Amino acid sequence: MNASPAAITADAPARLPWLHRLSVASLVVTILLTIGIGGTITSTEVGMAYPTWPDINGGSLFNIFYGELADAFGTGSVIEHTHRQAGALAGFIVLLTAALAWLQRGVSKRVRWLATATLALVTVQGLIGALRVLENSYGGAILHALGAQAVVVVLVVQVRATSGAPRLVPAPADDRDATLRRWTTLALVLLFVNLFAAASLRHKQGAFPGHLVLAILTAVVLLAVMRLAFLAPVRRALHRDALRMSWVLGTQLALGVAAWAYLLGPLAEDFADEQLRFTVQAALATGHLLCGVLVMAVATSLWLEARAPEAR
Amino acid sequence: MRVGEAVGVAVVVGLAALGVVLLFAGEPSVAGAARQERVENEREAALLAALEAEFGSWATPQVPADLPLAEPDLARGARVWLSQCLQCHGATGDANTPTAAMHKPRPRDLRHGIVKYKSTERGYPPLREDLERSVRLGITGTGMSSFRGLPEPDLQAVLDWTTYVMLRGQTWMRAKDALAASPDTAPEAVLAAELDTVRGLWSDLQRKVVAVPQRPTPDAAAVERGGHLFRGRAACATCHSDDGSGLPDGAVALPDAWGWDVEPRDLRGGWRGSRDAADLFRRVRVGIDGTPMPGVGDTLTDDEAWDVVTFLETLAE
């Protein structure tokens, strides 16, 4: 049975301004700093610039004298070091969010446990990063890449849960609604499978054709999801996310083609200067990764909005 | 779920499975780097042709006779190198990659046939065991991390390939220098002569291992004697300062064999490479190959060299 607008208003959870701000801050720091710098590490292949953890060849994680660090261990170590610092910053904000969720009155159990689960996931993700370094493990590196996007998914859920948006409805309203729900789930699963392929490729453990097939397949499924979202009855948030997806997916496909052309394709040898080749390749690979994170974030939001009761 | 939708989902799942299969069915994809020695004139091109007649091309490598590589698994070694070593040590072992430039100390240019941490006399190549230890355990204080997680066949194969890269590189570098110094000699003759020299350097390396005598009891008196020698007759303090803190005020860093300035270590924080006492003894005795760090040679007796080792161990604590 469809809920009336009045019922939706009565059922809507309270907006939690500080928890929401902290959740947004976690998401921004995670994507732009932690994953952005992490992607740069993989693109420039300096992940093992200093193979110690949590110290930096005996130094502190909180060292901000980057010039001295570069003098001692090279610029690669500065990139690795700032990634760890960004991860620590994201972890601190997530910790603060979880603490506030439990200390503040009027916060639902659902939000409290969600914030706690995010904290647990971020902690595990940090430990996987440590494992990757200490064991010099490409398997660990691929798992670390998957974990990063899992953190993004959970943070997107948390951002919505603290925003005062209507709670998700357990049962679909009709067949079309059920179809949309199924295909957003399928899209999310495919995104993770494709992410696994991309991470394997970046860490030289997988072959490009696998990533190509999965990327095309994921793009087609996302296009189908967008179509279903646009065909759904007027649900502003859903339409907004579908429109966002069209932008990030288009950009991602363009970056993917460029990254292939300059890393593995016909333009890979098209540089007179080795440093320029390296810079272009690293920038494209990192840009492709970051845009992929945005695709994952918007797909998560679509998954959530496909289950929202708005304007039924 | 309607039949049409169920078919659609099945097709997606099937194609996803195909993607995963393709991901692991072929060789891992690696952004390419030119695997070719650089030549600057016709004589060097002829020299390269002579090199390839002995060592094969990079795509079809072979080992010349009488070099210390029995039944190497070069194909496997090259694959491991591409995925694990290429970014720092380069396709030809020249360590001239943008990633290498982001490391300090720079990854080793293996084409000179020299490595720093080894058990042989200065000027001689390392034993396979020395290379294996660096690959398996990594080199403390550098970006050379441990590859102990590699499957054993991969690890042995990459040691084969590393040795091949060193032999080929050393022959090429020596021959290029000799060619420039002997403009009237045919490139083929130059290469043959330098290959013979390389054979000589790499043969019977066990006889070139620096002997490590029995260590006397490392007591407080040994620390005191070692400190005295460090600041006196062994002349360690000239570069490492009296307190072992590294380059003294006013002194300048000296270049290593690869052309990079190296500063003497601050020994209070330990040192790079193995912490094993026997290895430290060898470094005191013969120095560190490829660097301005000299050995004490015959300046100290065995017991005195051990005293210096004991002092250094205390300093690092």
The best one-word shape of chain A is globular
Estimate the helix proportion of chain A, in percent: over 70%
The strands making up the biggest β-sheet of chain B line up spatially as 1-2
Give the overall silhouette of chain B: globular
Largest sheet of chain B: 2 strands, antiparallel
> What share of the residues of chain B does DSSP label as strand, in percent?
under 5%
**Major sheet size, sense and barrel closure of chain A:** none
Measured distance between first and last alpha carbons of chain B: 70 Å
Notes on the structure:
The complex is a heterodimer of chains A (312) and B (317). With 312 residues, chain A is mostly helical. In chain A, 75% of the residues lie in helices and 0% in strands. Chain A has helices spanning 5-11, 17-44, 66-73, 75-103, 109-134, 138-161, 175-202, 208-231, 236-263, 274-305. In chain A, helix 5 packs antiparallel against helix 6, helix 6 (138-161) crosses helix 10 (274-305) and helix 9 packs antiparallel against helix 10 (274-305). With 317 residues, chain B is mainly α. Chain B has 2 domains: 9-208, no CATH class; 220-315, Cytochrome c-like domain (Cytochrome Bc1 Complex, Chain D, domain 2), CATH 1.10.760.10. Chain B has helices at residues 3-25, 42-55, 74-84, 86-89, 98-101, 128-137, 152-181, 187-202, 220-231, 237-240, 277-286, 302-316; strands at residues 254-255, 261-262. In chain B, a hairpin with a 5-residue loop joins strand 1 and strand 2 (261-262). The N and C termini of chain B lie far apart (70 Å). Chains A and B meet through helix 3, helix 4, helix 7, helix 8 and helix 10 of A and helix 1 and helix 5 of B.
Salient structural properties:
heterodimer, A: 312 residues, mainly alpha, 10 helices, 75% helix, disordered N terminus, B: 317 residues, Cytochrome Bc1 Complex, Chain D, domain 2, 2 domains, two-stranded antiparallel sheet, 12 helices, 2 strands, globular
Short description:
The complex is a heterodimer of chains A (312) and B (317). Chain A has 312 residues and is mainly α.
